[in-house]
Amino acid sequence: MKKLIIIGFDGTIADTSPGILYCMNTTANAMGYTPVHHDALYGVIGVSVEQGFKRLYGMKEDEIEYAMANFSKLYSIKGEEMFQIYDGVEESLEKIKQTGCKLAIVTQKNRKFITNMLGVYKNIGEHFDTVCATDVEIDREKSDMLRLVCEELEVDIADSIFIGDSYVDALAAEEVGMDFAAALYGWGFRSQEDAEKYHCRAYLNNANELFTKLSRLE
Hints:
It contains 10 helices and 8 strands. The chain has about 220 residues and is α/β, with parallel strands linked by helices. The chain has 2 domains: about 5-15 and about 85-215, HAD superfamily/HAD-like (Rossmann fold, 3-Layer(aba) Sandwich); about 20-80, Putative phosphatase, domain 2 (DNA polymerase, domain 1, Orthogonal Bundle). A 6-stranded parallel beta sheet has the order 5-4-1-6-7-8, with helices on both faces.
C-alpha cells in the first residue's frame, strides 16, 4: 500500500452538489440567467467556481467578480450545510489509518468552508494528517497542493497516490508524476470510459473501495 493517500473532497469524500448548485443557481438567477438542472454539474464540480459560472451560464468576465462574491456569501450562509458524506467513507478511512498510511485532503474549496464541514463530521476529519485548501489571499493549483502535502508530510511523490473524481484531479496528479485513482461515483467522470483517457492505477465504483482497491497498490 502507498505511504500517503491524498483525497479530494467534492465528489470523493462528500456529495457537495446540492449546496454548490443552490448557490450557483441563486446567484445566476439574480443576475438574469436561467437556473440549470442538477445533471449539468457533471464535469463542472472539480473545476473552479469561476470556470463553473462561465461553463454553466456563459457569464462574461466582467460579471464573474460579482458572481464569485455572491456565491461565497451564500455558501457561507446556506451552501456549506448542504452536503452528505458518501456511504463507506468513514469505514474506509479507519481501515486505511490502521495500516499506518498517512491521509490528506487536497481541495480548492476555501479553507473556511472545508474546516466548517469537517467540523460537522469530526469522526471523518480526525483521520487526516493534513488538509490543503485555498485561502482568500492564495489560490493554488491542485498540482502545487499535491507537492505541498508531500513536502509537509515528508513522503515522496512516488510513494503517494491522489484519488479524485475529475479530469482536473487526474491532470494535477500527472503534472507532478503522482499515481492517480479515479472515483467514478462523484460528479466529474460519468463512466470508467471517461476516466480511461487518463493514466489511472484504479477505478473506484463506491467509497468502500477507497480501502479495498487502494490496499492492493504498491
